[in-house]
Amino acid sequence: MPDTTETTTPALDVRGLGVRLEGSQILHGIDLRVERGKVVAVLGTNGSGKSTLVRSLVRAVPVTEGSVEILGAPLGPAVPWDRIGYVPQRVGASAGVPATVAEIVASGLLTSRSLRKPRDWRARVDAALTEVRLSHRRDQAVTELSGGQQQRVLIARALVRDPDLLILDEPVAGVDHPSQEALAATLRRLVASGRTIVVVLHELGELADLISRAVVLRHGRVVHDGAPPRAAHGHDAADHDHVHVHGDPEPRSLPPVLPEHLFSEGA
Ligand SMILES: Nc1ncnc2c1ncn2[C@@H]1O[C@H](COP(=O)(O)OP(=O)(O)OP(=O)(O)O)[C@@H](O)[C@H]1O
């Protein structure tokens, strides 16, 4: 009998997740189930716990309560990590290490199980760099690139794995509009081929048409899980907190889908 586990289990199944860091409870009882082939945006104000959530999924911070299953396996060595791409929040691609763009991208092909690059690694690195439009920078030191270009190198490092699950933490922060559009096209292509994407965002921006589900965090809790809220027409400033149903043709004529205070820090 064929093994159907791979396609029937969700890409991500988070239940009652709690994370405590340095004595503070950062995440409280997070439930998040993402079926394969879906895109989910994680939204919320600064400090609401978005990065901590995705960092807990890749074991960068410890889970203190609840359970996490990724691609059908409990968080741990059984997870097929080589099938998962992770783009951390902007940190600079080199962290002070003098490496070329191609070397950084190729490092995405190494896993804890194998430190040997696959035979076709050069072609895969070239394809990933073409995807983020940085082929011409291939042999340049990554430290010579701008912040936005370094972010694209990190995206290429995740893409080179051809991941089933792609987790991105604010991938478009500091990235110009043409590059955002290029990333949106890449993500669209991945979703069309059945990949799953979890993406932390401050605003939907160029990725808006890709996202039909948003999970909003506030003070480490999920306060909304559904159609993405968006700023009301004409109220797109970063410090404005009106939110309306996505796709509403007359946003001013409908009440907000979420309370106005949801995106404000102090409430
Ligand atoms: N290692 C840590 N130790 C203690 N507290 C932490 C640690 N990392 C994050 N925090 C705290 O956890 C809370 C959530 O931080 P997190 O970075 O997850 O938020 P965020 O929603 O991603 O914010 P931003 O939009 O600014 O990136 C913040 O109050 C932060 O100070």
Automatic annotation (TrEMBL):
Q: Which parts of this chain are annotated as the region Disordered? A: 226-258
> Could you name the domain of life of the organism this protein comes from?
Bacteria
InterPro entries documented for this protein: AAA+_ATPase (IPR003593), ABC_transporter-like_ATP-bd (IPR003439), ABC_transporter-like_CS (IPR017871), Metal_Ion_Import_ABC (IPR050153), P-loop_NTPase (IPR027417)
Q: Which residues form the ABC transporter domain?
A: 12-244
Query: Tell me, what is one Gene Ontology molecular-function annotation carried by this entry?
Result: ATP hydrolysis activity
Q: Which Pfam families match?
A: ABC_tran (PF00005)
Q: Where is the composition biased (Basic and acidic residues)?
A: 233-251
Q: Please give the Gene3D superfamilies that the UniProt record associates with this protein.
A: P-loop containing nucleotide triphosphate hydrolases (3.40.50.300)
Is ATP-binding one of the keywords? Answer: yes
Please verify whether the record's keywords include Mitochondrion.
no
Keywords assigned by UniProt, alphabetized:
ATP-binding, Nucleotide-binding, Transport
Query: Could you say which protein family the record assigns here?
Result: Belongs to the ABC transporter superfamily.
The protein here is known as Zinc transport system ATP-binding protein
From the broadest rank down, the organism's phylogenetic lineage runs: Bacteria, Bacillati, Actinomycetota, Actinomycetes, Micrococcales
